[in-house]
Design a protein that fits this description.
The protein is an all-alpha fold. The protein contains 12 helices and no strands. About 70% of the residues lie in helices and about 0% in strands.
Length: about 180
């Protein structure tokens, strides 16, 4: 199963995105082992977390329309996190993933949300701290992930939202809710 997915991803993703995906898998398995989660689920969620990134803007929009994937108001203006919705759908329908926890982790990996499961958190953080990412904020997130996943989440979000800060764009409401929940 994994070999088939890897072969498809090698042909549909740009090389740097595929490299990021493999790095995310490595980080997810390490985090799963550290926090006593299922390593196989973590690997599969990480492997497929960016499976929709091979689609361009028009293809992504068409996929959403053809598969009744509704975009919230924020995603109509910030298209970046839409790949998580499409990726979760592709995981289930194209790659035949039946594990709803894995599908949910893929769905939640881009912007997060309240009440994230351990697998959701692992996928979210692994995406930000994988070995191919760089920058001082990444290193800080990596160090936090060694101590506590909840402590790493806001730092991982900081890494993931560089593009928003660069354009002074608002953060997704689900990300804001996640941060509020973590801050108690």
């Amino acid at each position: 199963m994994y070999d088939n997915i890897i072969n498809v991803l090698k042909t549909t993703l740009f090389e740097n995105r595929f490299t990021h995906t493999i790095g995310t898998c490595e980080s997810a398995v390490v985090l799963a082992a550290k926090y006593s989660a299922c390593e196989e689920q973590a690997y599969l969620a990480a492997l497929l977390h960016d499976c929709a990134r091979g689609l361009n803007y028009d293809e992504t929009l068409t996929y959403c329309q053809e598969n009744n994937i509704e975009l919230d108001e924020h995603m109509k203006n910030d298209f970046n996190p839409v790949h998580a919705l499409v990726g979760a759908h592709m995981a289930k329908h194209q790659f035949k993933v039946e594990d709803e926890a894995v599908i949910q982790a893929i769905l939640r990996h881009a912007v997060g949300c309240e009440n994230m499961t351990l697998l959701d958190k692992i996928t979210f953080v692994a995406d930000a701290i994988e070995p191919n990412r760089d920058g001082p904020d990444v290193e800080e997130a990596r160090q936090a992930a060694e101590r506590n996943l909840d402590e790493a989440i806001p730092l991982a979000l900081h890494v993931k939202t560089r593009y928003l800060r660069a354009t002074n764009s608002p953060m997704h409401p689900s990300s804001i809710s996640m941060l509020k929940e973590l801050n108690g």
